[in-house]
Amino acid sequence: MFVTSPDGTRIATHTIGSATGEPALLITGGPARGVEYLGDFAGVGEVRPLQVVHPRGTPTTGGLSRGWWNDTADVIAVAEASGLEAFDLVAHSAGTRLALATVAQHPGRIRSLLLVTPPATWLTGAAYDGEELARRRAEPEVAAALASMLGEDPADEDEFQTSWRVEGPAGYAAWTAVERAHAEVGEMHLDASNAWFRDIPSDAAERVLHSELPPTLVIGGREDLLTGFRPVEAYASALGADAVFIDECGHYPWVERPVEFGGVASDWLVR
């Protein structure tokens, strides 16, 4: 299914789950990662239908983002195509930036927020503590992932794809066959990733924090090297949000801890 945004761009969208009733919207992360990495989202869609927004730059929508601050009309277009005036919004990882931008720019439209493993340092300036988390891990792949994350940014698509593969273990609390398989799902590309961060106003964080924020739940993984732990704590506090941190869990809680994640997310969406 496609929805036409005000500038004429066709935004792809699909539904997760067989539940009936009003859907919650779900913005994927990456940025611009192929949306199949969501899988069944730990079965949350069997409790509350999830209408997934495929952001610009994903393989299904195509094109490039205008920058996460500037794509909020796409979210509103999907909501309106679903018949929603006020709606509940779920977002993962990079998608949480677009979710907060939508709150800031469209007051009154977002009824609640569920933000899953959000990148957090941009909002509060809290120091990244992923190196401390990595010291608890014995796998050599984790050390290599962290070294790549802290190194130079990739200069071309080949370097980006190499970095993406090397950094995969940082997204998980373990590196078994389950996590390895998931890390291969959903393609990403350098130009789409870079476009996500263009033309962002210098006061974006301040504008978010001075917005009228809806009830918000942040779900984090205690072993998420991509976000760190303390930055996500500070992020939730700054938003006045409730926070749940799942033990033995990284950046993709529906993969590593589906029962715990599915329970918390479902309870929030049907409260």
In brief:
The chain is of the alpha/beta class. It has helices at residues 72-81, 95-105, 121-124, 130-134, 140-149, 157-167, 177-183, 190-195, 204-209, 230-238, 253-256, 258-269, and strands spanning 2-4, 10-16, 24-27, 50-53, 87-92, 110-116, 216-221, 242-246.
Helix/strand layout:
Layout: E1 2-4, E2 10-16, E3 24-27, E4 50-53, H1 72-81, E5 87-92, H2 95-105, E6 110-116, H3 121-124, H4 130-134, H5 140-149, H6 157-167, H7 177-183, H8 190-195, H9 204-209, E7 216-221, H10 230-238, E8 242-246, H11 253-256, H12 258-269
Parallel strand pairs: 3-4, 3-5, 5-6, 6-7, 7-8
Antiparallel strand pairs: 1-2, 2-4
Helix pairs in contact: 1-2
Organism: Agromyces protaetiae
Domain AB hydrolase-1: 77-256
GO molecular function: hydrolase activity
